[in-house]
Write a structure and sequence with these properties.
The protein is α+β, with helices and mostly antiparallel strands. The chain has two domains: 236 residues, Dipeptide-binding Protein, Domain 1 (Dipeptide-binding Protein, domain 1); 230 residues, Dipeptide-binding Protein, domain 3, CATH 3.10.105.10. The protein has 17 helices and 23 strands. The strands form seven sheets. Strands 11, 12, 15, 16, 17, 18 and 19 form a seven-stranded mixed beta sheet that branches. Strands 1-10-9-8 form a four-stranded mixed beta sheet. Strands 4-5-7-6 form a four-stranded antiparallel beta sheet, covered by helices on one side. α9 runs antiparallel to α12 and α16 runs antiparallel to α17. The longest helix is centred in the C-terminal third of the chain and has 18 residues. The radius of gyration is 23 Å and the shape is globular. The two termini are 33 Å apart.
Length: 552
């Protein structure tokens, strides 16, 4: 996912660029509960929502919002375990693990009262892989659901995708080959259903605002359009599990300045305020302070080709110089101070584990790209000689979130003071604009992130495969591609061999080629109302779930 999962992507789809939530308890919430009888909480978001269309979402902000109002066949519970959503039970799987038969519950409804059926999934998935839709996350179907790759390449019709409705309550999915993580992948927002009759009637207006959508999740959305800085969610009385939803309403507002968030929290107008830098340091002893490490990874992206021409980052020594000159430990301690941890690989810690030994992937593969200023300066000297340039100016793309600004300034200072002849010009744009510039590969150096779409190392490593639609930096290595292909095909039913292939792939990407420069694994620090329970963050898929939030 992108951190834009660009959590994802993912990652998809930050998490700092993802929704930061909490539940009621400031003075405002107390008054609202006592006077109206409704249980309402006030939460914050770090950026505007780029898209509410599950065919188009690519980032953590969008995925969290979609996860609040839509539901797929399965969902992640409080412990990141896969549970039946629209499906009424786990799938039935054939002997060679390529055909999944999924029964749907009878009481799953859209907010307009119509039933959620197997046809809704068939319609949605076919639209995503249809080249006419140009869905960025069509890549998540590629090599997984039968014929998806050929369809996205225009070689087959969307109707030939390996999914069909046996009847209204039975969905059959055929895979290209066994996919060890497919069950968890079905929780991801890109696999959500859409009602064909409703969507086609809305046409281009579908999902442009909250009035042009119907919902099948725990909440419905109110007062939102694609430029909104505030909106709300209301309990969905058509939701099959509405009895377990304790809130009546959630108010959201976009807050990019942590100082403003703290002020709103202390005056009872916000039930959770995310912190970074000085605010995180100041509030660590506060009784309302909370922090956790998530699975989003921030890194520097090196664009090796811009406007059809090679950039300085086509030079390996230039990439290695910038990747090893940044003091990541000092960066997370002084700039972020929110529980983030330096990382010297792409796959985060405490995320995925060896299928036999259960050892953490990050620990097993070790530190692949450590801070070494002296070595960085040697790399830089070689790069300038090879490039024939004594002075180099780079444009550094960042966005308008407060922590992004501070991070960019820290990195700018590290690079300019440590690498002779290098000048860094920061280009700060709105969050959505950065995602667009990334999509069109219109940048030189970029502060980016990725969040996992499913619980497997390939959700990170696959981003930089040569043919990946999210490989927007022109990195390419045939050996790397070969290892990832083997992990997805011939090694799919050989867990330990597959694991070793993925370990080696990461070493090629980071240690050997330095295709990207990992910076840190994201931590989230916040002031949170002590009367709130049930706020859930996920290690993969949509970053947050609101459906268990409760006011005590």
């Amino acid at each position: 996912m992108k951190l834009k999962k660009n959590w994802g992507l993912l990652l998809m789809l930050t998490i700092m660029t993802a929704v930061l939530v909490a539940c009621g308890g400031g003075d405002t919430s107390k008054d609202e509960v006592s006077t109206s009888g409704k249980k309402t909480v006030n939460l914050m978001e770090s950026a505007e929502i780029p898209s509410m269309d599950s065919k188009k979402g690519t980032d953590g902000v969008s995925f969290t919002a979609q996860n609040t109002v839509f539901e797929g066949l399965y969902y992640l519970d409080k412990d990141d375990q896969v549970q039946p959503g629209v499906a009424k039970a786990d799938p039935e799987i054939n002997d060679d693990q390529t055909v999944y038969t999924i029964k749907l519950r009878d009481d799953a409804k859209w907010s307009n009262g119509t039933s959620v059926t197997a046809k809704d999934f068939v319609y949605s998935w076919r639209k995503i892989v249809d080249p006419k839709t140009a869905a960025e996350y069509a890549v998540i179907f590629s090599g997984v659901v039968k014929n998806a790759t050929k369809i996205t390449n225009g070689e087959m019709k969307p109707e030939e995708l390996g999914v069909k409705a046996i009847d209204d309550n039975t969905l059959e999915v055929t895979l290209e080959q066994p996919v060890p993580y497919f069950h968890s992948l079905l929780t991801f927002p890109t696999f959500y259903p859409q009602n064909e009759e409703y969507v086609e009637k809305q046409g281009k207006d579908y999902a442009k605002d909250s009035e042009h959508m119907i919902y099948n999740g725990a909440f419905t959305m109110k007062d939102w359009n694609n430029t909104s800085k505030s909106w709300s969610y209301e309990k969905n009385n058509k939701y099959w599990n509405k009895g377990d939803i304790k809130l009546d309403k959630i108010n959201l507002q976009v807050i990019k300045d942590p100082g403003s968030a703290v002020n709103l929290y202390t005056t009872g107008k916000l039930d959770r305020a995310t912190l970074s830098g000085d605010y995180a340091k100041q509030k660590q002893s506060d009784k309302d302070f909370t922090s956790n490490l998530d699975a989003f990874v921030y890194f520097l992206k090196f664009n090796q080709k811009l406007d059809g021409k090679a950039t300085i980052f086509a030079n390996e020594n230039a990439r290695k110089a910038i990747a090893t000159v940044i003091d990541k430990e000092t960066m997370v301690d002084t700039v972020l101070a929110n529980g983030s941890e330096p990382i010297d690989g792409l796959v985060p810690s405490k995320f995925t584990f060896n299928p036999e030994t259960k050892e953490d992937f990050r620990k097993e593969n070790g530190d692949l790209l450590t801070y070494d200023k002296a070595k960085a300066q040697e790399y830089w000297k070689k790069a300038k000689q090879e490039l024939g340039q004594d002075s180099i100016t780079l444009e550094f793309l960042s966005d308008d979130q407060e922590f992004s600004k501070k991070m960019s300034e820290y990195i700018q200072n590290e690079l300019q003071t440590s690498l002779d002849g290098l000048k860094i010009n920061i280009k700060t744009v709105p969050y959505k604009s950065r995602l667009k510039l990334d999509e069109t590969q219109d940048y030189e150096l970029q502060l980016a992130r990725w969040g996992p779409d499913y619980q497997d190392p390939s959700t990170f490593l696959g981003v930089f495969e040569t043919t990946s639609s999210y490989n927007r930096s022109s990195y390419s290595n045939p050996e790397y591609d070969k290892l990832l292909k083997e992990a997805a095909t011939t090694l799919a039913t050989k867990p330990e061999e597959r694991w070793k292939a993925l370990l080696q792939a990461e070493k090629i990407l980071i240690e050997q080629d330095t295709g990207v420069a990992p910076l840190y694994q994201n931590g989230v620090a916040a002031l949170q109302n002590p009367k709130m329970t049930g706020f859930v963050s996920h290690l993969f898929g949509a970053p947050y779930s609101y459906q268990w939030i409760e006011i005590k």
